[in-house]
Design a protein that fits this description.
The structure is a homotetramer.
Chain A: E1 4-9, H1 25-40, H2 45-50, E2 57-64, E3 73-83, E4 87-96, E5 112-119, H3 132-135
Antiparallel strand pairs in A: 1-3, 2-5, 3-4, 4-5
């Protein structure tokens, strides 16, 4: 599995008085997508922590290309784009209200695109090697981030 | 005023089970710092919105250089590093538990560094010109972000 | 439909350094459950707001009977227990990690139980009558809250 | 000290698309007020946790009497209204934008009133006795909650 699509809905709690989703919440959705990405490849991130392995965030970035609103159905496309000795890089694109068709992503433009970098760490937050179970299961992929560099039509 | 220092404390709500502040909350602190930056130069951002002007986020980035924990006293150094026709760029550095000395920042290393880019917009989220009242009061500045590019000693 | 079961998972963002879900987040789950309750009876709450009808919270209560943790699969049992001229009362019970059996609730004890009271309001937050479309579709029910009054075995 | 007043401002993150503060955030402010209540009587709650003592929430309640909005200056009146062998009960009233006068609370009506009940626990969340250092410093008080039982004029 190279690409994982995590689905969620914008909660009322996640909106702000601009009538759109508050910007920090995109990072919460990225996190939820990571959890489900791991489950989709047969791993439970919670188990890593029980074994004393943690995945803190070293860097986070998001470009906001269009708004999302309360009750919008979101899809967070999620890939691992880089894996080093101790670090992982995830890339994400968020789509909203995709049509119920054979290939809903065709022609769809993301409303947000971002990445996070993580360093595998032990319980004292010292860097640790990525476990083999994880290394063997991740298949690297990349998302077309070019459209997210274009001048946003929204903000 | 070129540099504004916003002070806050890490709330219990802002921690996660890794015993550190959850990464998305750094963007909430950036936001609170922006509000107080505006007030410090004599403007109330809430008034802009009452006049139909909004400042949505177009891009957000944070590099995490060290952990922060519940009840840590944080300082968010805040500057406007760029101002164009319609957009503003803020830069931030977060410090924790600074000593009570004459120059607490001397030798202090930030635990996080980031930026946000904003596009002034009207009520329909279409780009709008930055109001003169704002333009005339902002003094550009930059933070030394070099140390935040170094390999983090923590994660 | 008298009882609606909303399913969600505890996000990392929703935990705190006590290694359990932060207490305010139970109210966020209650809210997400309300949205899906409405959808399940054929109504979209977002549409109410587009028509100028709002459902602010007048009162909220939760009793915490046991912990929930990161990645726990939660079920929020949701009913409307009272409907007056302008107000609605929801009751909730939260269960975690229910077994995959015919009647997973048999013998299961909730980890939390609560209620919220709402007053239908217009755009100026003045009380308004509950729309007939809603009134005709809600079937009142109640949850057995007796066990939630017992002395908690946990906290 | 019987009554502690915690001050905070409504963050943009804390609003929702109803243009008011999201209801769950009142419980976050209650929590921040508790932390500062402890500090005001000479105790640091973070130190309790370092010694293996925790204060999980057993029950939480809030009545919303009027809205609060972005940038409103809030005061959270905080008292301990009950102390048993293992449990504490806090009561809160929230006021907004109080005037800068000698007695700002005179005639002021709270926009919210609530309480939380806590059970002192050890690291395994088993009940524990309240430490003497705490017991000796808390002075019980109560807030006039009568006005919060009246029919809200707002919601």
């Amino acid at each position: 599995m190279k690409i994982f699509d995590y689905q969620t809905r914008v909660r009322y709690a996640e909106t702000d008085q601009m009538h759109v989703s508050y910007y920090a919440n995109y990072f919460v959705w990225f996190e939820a997508a990571r959890t489900e990405y791991f489950r989709a490849i047969g791993l439970v991130y919670a188990d890593f922590e029980k074994q004393g392995l943690f995945l803190p965030v070293a860097e986070a970035h998001c470009r906001y290309l269009g708004p999302s609103c309360y009750d919008d159905a979101l899809v967070v496309r999620t890939v691992v784009s880089q894996m080093r000795q101790r670090s992982l890089r995830f890339e994400y694109q968020i789509f909203k209200n995709l049509p119920q068709v054979a290939n809903p992503f065709e022609g769809a433009k993301p409303i947000a695109a971002g990445y996070t970098v993580h360093v595998f760490s032990d319980a004292n937050l010292k860097p640790a090697r990525i476990p083999d179970a994880l290394r063997s299961k991740v298949e690297l992929a990349s998302l077309d981030m070019s459209q997210s560099v274009r001048r946003s039509n929204f903000r």
